[in-house]
Amino acid sequence: MKRILFVDDDSGVLDGLRRMLRGMRHEWETVFTCSGAEALRLLEQSPFDVVVTDMRMPGMDGAQLLEEVMRRHAETIRIVLSGQADGESVLRSIGSAHQYLSKPCDESTVKATIARALLLRQWISEPTIKQLVARVTSLPSLPSLYAELVAELRSAESSIQRIAAIISRDVGMTAKILQLVNSSYFGLRQRVATPSQAVAHLGIDVLRALVLSVHTFAEYEGLTLAGFSIDALFDHSLAVGALAKQVVQKAGGTAEQANDALVAGMLHDVGKLVLASNLQDRYAAALTLARRDPMPLVAAENEVFGCSHAEVGAYLLALWGLSDAVVEAVAFHHQPARSAVQSFSALTAVHVANALARERGAAPREPSSIDDDYLAGLGLFDRLPGWRELADGILCEGVMQ
Ligand SMILES: [Fe+2]
Ligand SMILES: [Fe+2]
Question: What distances in angstroms separate CA 10 from CA 39, 83, 265, 287, one per listed residue?
Answer without folding.
Answer: 14, 12, 43, 51
